[in-house]
């Protein structure tokens, strides 16, 4: 290994530990427009083949302007890995503990989604802590289409 070289120098963001976080911190994720390619990829991964996701005429007959995105497909857009947070906890992340979500409005092909995560609770433990984040997704019209929660187990700073 070359003198002075470290892998850590290439992370791009400073490492954070549980006690470095504050309630109210917000992570806006990159926006994404839901395309037919997203629908096809999700169908392959999930095996879901219900007409509401893949048959435009079925959707129109049921009052929808276009194909409906599967709820779990929409939920995927809240993945923390799309933003800054996982890079900040490269050394301190122990586990992604749980996730919940409520689907509030339909998402159709062509909608642009704006996901965000916001720290809403910090629960310290002996050597770790749990960070609870509110997950939200708004569409291009500013409508809240999904809300939920993520919980992450994060190490405290080593002594």
From TrEMBL:
InterPro entries: FAS1-like_DH_region, HotDog_dom_sf, MCH/BMMD
Pfam family of the protein (one): FAS1_DH_region
Record domain FAS1-like dehydratase: where: 23-147
Superkingdom of the source species: Bacteria
Protein name: MaoC family dehydratase N-terminal domain-containing protein
Organism name: Futiania mangrovi
